[in-house]
Amino acid sequence: xxxxxxxxxxxxxxxxxxxxxxxxxxxxxxxxxxxxxxxxxxxxxxxxxxxxxxxxxxxxxxxxxxxxxxxxxxxxxxxxxxxxxxxxxxxxxxxxxxxxxxxxxxxxxxxxxxxxxxxxxxxxxxxxxxxxxxxxxxxxxxxxxxxxxxxxxxxxxxxxxxxxxxxxxxxxxxxxxxxxxxxxxxxxxxxxxxxxxxxxxxxxxxxxxxxxxxxxxxxxxxxxxxxxxxxxxxxxxxxxxxxxxxxxxxxxxxxxxxxxxxxxxxxxxxxxxxxxxxxxxxxxxxxxxxxxxxxxxxxxxxxxxxxxxxxxxxxxxxxxxxxxxxxxxxxxxxxxxxxxxxxxxxxxxxxxxxxxxxxxxxxxxxxxxxxxxxxxxxxxxxxxxxxxxxxxxxxxxxxxxxxxxxxxxxxxxxxxxxxxxxx
Length: 423
Hints:
Blueprint: H1 7-10, E1 16-26, E2 29-34, H2 37-44, E3 50-57, E4 67-72, E5 75-81, H3 88-96, H4 104-119, E6 125-131, H5 133-144, E7 148-155, H6 169-185, E8 188-191, H7 194-202, E9 213-215, E10 237-241, H8 250-263, E11 268-272, H9 278-287, E12 294-298, H10 303-311, E13 315-318, H11 334-341, E14 346-349, H12 353-360, E15 364-367, H13 371-383, H14 385-399, H15 404-420
Parallel strand pairs: 1-3, 1-6, 6-7, 7-8, 8-9, 10-11, 10-13, 11-12, 13-14, 14-15
Antiparallel strand pairs: 1-2, 3-4, 4-5
Helix pairs in contact: 3-4, 4-5, 5-6, 8-13, 11-14
């Protein structure tokens, strides 16, 4: 029996790749908050003959129509928006349904855009990669129709209780069913965190079966992986990078700073990112009289500029809150990967799987998600230079090879190994 999947059959100058993902758009511009679009384009476009991208705007975008990009021999040859007239009833539904991050209307739009684009393109595709289960479902149908050969279900977020906390139990049941269906019927599943499959098994997925699930964690571009000597970092500076939402614990970081300053008055906190809690957090800073010690950078679009700011700081913070229904128990913490790439020791709570991993590897300190515990973790690094240097060395060692090129190369090697094991 010959293996169905061979890397050389998929990644070559005669192959065609079909990618479906999502992005946040503002004023017609794709923002860095997207589903690995730049990493996948940079990896695939130079290696294959044809790459077709369907980019579905996130519900918080200021546009609705999916964006289409086509690459031929590493060059972009087409870029346009899918006309609303092609799916006008769904488009109207999207306009009417304006609340919530997950909207049925947008899922219908996503499914239509994938099927429509595949059926209107000449030729077939050797590989289909779909972020989100609804896109993977479309890919599975296209495989049945003979339009694609291999289907990859790429999972960037997962939680057994993703919608339960919003009182949407029926929606959560549908979400879990669709995720399970795609895991069972896609050729491969790429999970950004190994905790995702563990969550599925705990939630009833048959543990006696073997699944074609691969851990494909997040990576970085080489320009983002660079650290400064300890002597050139800003002393006493703490940095938080990420979205300003309750699960991420920025409030905890600010309150911990107040405690840290009692012992180390020169401490300061840099906050890089935007989100719905921005005004609440600014009021908290005023209430605690920390205006001169906290800098809000806002959302920084350029990832290289983000990396530059982070590497000039001293200690990095990942203050995730231990909310039972948080997605963060199962995700891959991109902020921690950027922290490590800058050679920074990390103070993290017990929530993110990557946080637990780096603590085991000697690059971080784990605390509880309380002000006392988190501030004590920060003080350990501020007061113990030997410990700080030890964790810095570990961070630099862990992050050295964490490039997207290496991440995706390993994914394809793992796919081939899984397929060969079935012979």
